[in-house]
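FAQ: What does the model actually see?

It sees only this:
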Amino acid sequence: MHLTNSTTSATARNRSLLRDAAVMLVCAALFSLLAALVTGHWRPLERFDQEWTDELHIYAREHRIWTASVQTLSDIGGTVTMRTLLGIAAAWLWLIGARVLAGWVAAQTLVGWGAQWALKLAFDRARPGFSDPVSHAGGPAFPSGHAMASTITCAVLVSLLWYRVRRRGRTAASAVAAATVLTIGWTRIALGVHWPSDVLGGWLAAGIVLGAVTTVIELWRPGALARDVRRVNWRTRPRVQRVIVSSGRPARTVDPLDEDHPDDAPQAEGTPEPDPPADGAPGNGVPGEGTPSGRGRGGAARKDAADRPDETVS
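And it is asked to produce this:
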């Protein structure tokens, strides 16, 4: 999921809204199916969960150094770390004036945290039990809080970076985010504190939260997220002064935050204001009178001025 940066009116916003709603509905349907299988104690799913967890637990018990490394990764990618990252991002966005985008990030954090515990308490699934566990975790198992928090955090951060980097940067950011989410989910299974279906449920629940929060904000403030994306790009862009040479209209720098009147945007600092063209000059839209070729009176005036340098053309 990524935020739209389109400057067009309703069409792009409607496509973005439909995409976010589709993400929410698809994830909700898959999560409901998985939850029904979990609560109904579907034998193939229970056998799959048990076999994976038992094999990884045996390996973790026999390789203590490997287990300590996995535990470290799990702690680094914990829920506190992920929500701290989102809190820092929300505070930075608020300080630079992207208030709606900051609220979107904060809402993802808070709604994700609330939904995680609401779902855990609703299903109240027991965690894997071993006589010699290599790690401990409290609370119900389904869905995995680590998997849910890491997915929300990585999706939000990639969305914020999406229009700040080029194609290679987007590919790299998406790859790092996907690897982070998969690694954190796998560590919870390897440590024996979650079933594989708990991790899958956490990923699907995160998709529901991401789609639902974005859809609600788009309906509440249409286009506000896109405007804040452009505001972030404008505030953080490199400050390079450029002089644009144009033979027709005066060079102006368009404020990316002004959608309705881009030609009324203030001129960039350091760009000289060109002299307005003479009446009838090319680019003013006034064709020359009595000239079948369409050349304006400005061309004739410049020719007369060249022949009579001591006179002033009015």
